[in-house]
Amino acid sequence: MGTIHLFRKPQRSFFGKLLQEFRLVAADRRSWKILVFGAVNVLCTGFLLMWCSSTNSIALTAYTYLTIFDLFSLITCLISYWVMMRKPSPAYSFGFERLEVLAVFASTVLAQLGALFILKESAERFLEQPEIHTGRLLVGTFVALSFNLFTMLSIRNKPFAYVSEAASTSWLQEHVADLSRSLCGIIPGLSSIFLPRMNPFVLIDLAGAFALCITYMLIEINNYFAVDTASAIAIALMTFGTMYPMSVYSGKVLLQTTPPHVIGQLDKLIREVSTLDGVLEVRNEHFWTLGFGSLAGSVHVRIRRDANEQMVLAHVTNRLYTLVSTLTVQIFKDDWNRPALLSGPVAPNVLNFSDHHIIPMPLLKNTDDMTPVTSTPAKPSSPPPEFAFNTPGKNVSPVILLNTQMRPYGLGVNRGTPYSSVLSQGLPVPGVGAGQGLRPAFPHIPSRYGNNRTGQPRP
């Protein structure tokens, strides 16, 4: 017996949660057509796999894998509808758009794995080529072609449509584009169909069906069974070459990279933001692709201390929102501290050292009320002679000197005499009395140019 929780919600299993989300998608009438096409795709794929086994044709097997890829594309379309119904949650603040990217990446990678499997089987068949039966080869080709074209042209698959346009062109598209330019030069009316580039899925369906037709004719005429293996390799290479650019593009989206075609526009917008009134600096900007056709980004903006934060935030968001749909802007004002001037008595721990000697400096007269020239009281309205805070010249702190420091030569003091004994002899302080100086008290002080050893003044 355990604790009884009266109001605790029962925990659903994984399949229970999956069934609940499937019911949510099935409630939309737009998904009914996708579900019908999915059921027909399963039946068609089953018949094609049985015909592949009866004909012993690996080329028809490679072409059947395209029908399985159509099933993955239909599942991706259902996921796209489910993403549009779901709203962002606290756990997924950016929404569920990345599930579309993940579905496209998984579908294209699985198609490439199927192509690699066909290449491996074809390499084994070159060593021992089996006999090919052409009874259902041509029928299976037209069934697969008609179903693939009907599926691609009847259902608007938003994720794959975007990827096929945004990703780089495959080698098959480039070669067909070169032929199309030559053909459109003769018949200009075909430019709307073949240019600028054909749909990669329609192109690979037509190219695969054409390869199977050539295989059927060569086997029927000359019993040349090796052409079936060659056609399988050609279909596998075309599949791999078509799916690889889409995998690369969706993989870069999953890695949160910035699309190359929007880097120039983002730099222009950042320069415009940095010239707004009140903006001092734009830093830590980071932009990435959240989903197909949607950008997310974050930026820190430093503004003046007197600028309006809400106004600057509105202007920055208005500029960047034209390109970045999900944007986070951090506004902080310019904060700088004035450096404090260090003044005051010496730290007491310094005075405790035994190898130091403290010399008290003689106190000067108060010069706050005197001018530096006449030593007369200054006017109350005149500015103070020094700054308002404690600077050298007022309240001089004690000077700390080493006991081992000796007085230099030339001041009439014996060698090795400490500073304390010099001050006890009556060293006058410059500037204390009018007309006082160092020369009357110390006759042996050298002149401006000094004395040489013989006592003669230096030239």
Features:
single chain, 459 residues, mainly alpha, Alpha-Beta Plaits, 3 domains, two-stranded antiparallel sheet, 5 strands, 8% strand, elongated
DSSP strand count:
5
**Beta-strand percent range:** 5-15%
**What is the number of helical segments per DSSP (H or I, 4+ residues)?**
14
Average pLDDT, rounded to a whole number, is 75
What is the spatial order of strands in the main beta sheet? 1-2-3
Brief write-up:
The chain has 459 residues and is mostly helical. Helix content is 50%, strand content 8%.
Structure write-up:
The protein has 459 residues and is mainly alpha-helical. It folds into three domains: 14-254, no CATH class; 260-333, Alpha-Beta Plaits; 345-459, no CATH class. It is built from 14 helices and five strands. Strand 1 (279-291) and strand 2 form a beta hairpin.
Set down the secondary structure blueprint:
Elements: H1 14-26, H2 30-55, H3 58-85, H4 98-127, H5 137-154, H6 158-166, H7 171-186, H8 191-194, H9 200-222, H10 226-254, H11 263-274, E1 279-291, E2 294-303, H12 309-320, E3 326-333, H13 348-351, E4 356-359, E5 399-402, H14 419-424
Parallel strand pairs: 2-3
Antiparallel strand pairs: 1-2, 4-5
